[in-house]
């Protein structure tokens, strides 16, 4: 059976995720291989798709200005949030890589050592990152 104009639907586009024994390929690595091999287009239902963040805002009844995204992935977490006007905090834990502090496209509103430090900064200063 041949499908005209196939579309690959994926839940994300991350390159890798972090396990206790090291990094593992994430769905994005496999999706890109399938896209390259088939020439199909991709629809991303999860991060960093703007719809993912906009639906979350709508469900919470909040505006982008009232929300901060804290994450360990510079592109999916921080970059995806910033595309929707949400401030993004990069934490230096989980899958974080030091070279992300100088990422060419995504500039976090704040870089924090841990989730605790990110939350404490917000608690102490409000949203004045």
UniProtKB/TrEMBL annotation:
GO terms for molecular function: inorganic diphosphate phosphatase activity; phosphatase activity. GO terms for cellular component: cytosol. InterPro entries: HAD-like_sf, HAD-SF_hydro_IA, HAD_sf. This is Phospholysine phosphohistidine inorganic pyrophosphate phosphatase. It comes from Caenorhabditis auriculariae.
């Amino acid at each position: 059976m041949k499908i005209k104009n196939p579309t690959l639907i994926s839940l994300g586009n991350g390159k890798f995720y972090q396990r206790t024994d090291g990094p593992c390929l994430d769905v994005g690595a496999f999706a890109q291989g399938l896209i390259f091999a088939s020439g199909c287009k991709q629809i991303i239902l999860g991060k960093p798709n703007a719809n993912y963040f906009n639906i979350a805002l709508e469900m919470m009844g909040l505006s982008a200005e009232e929300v901060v995204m804290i994450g360990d992935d510079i592109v999916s977490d921080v970059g995806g949030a910033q595309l929707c006007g949400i401030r993004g905090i990069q934490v230096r834990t989980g899958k974080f890589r030091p070279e992300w502090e100088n990422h060419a496209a995504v500039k976090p509103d704040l870089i924090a050592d841990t989730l605790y430090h990110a939350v404490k900064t917000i608690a102490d200063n409000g949203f004045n990152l």
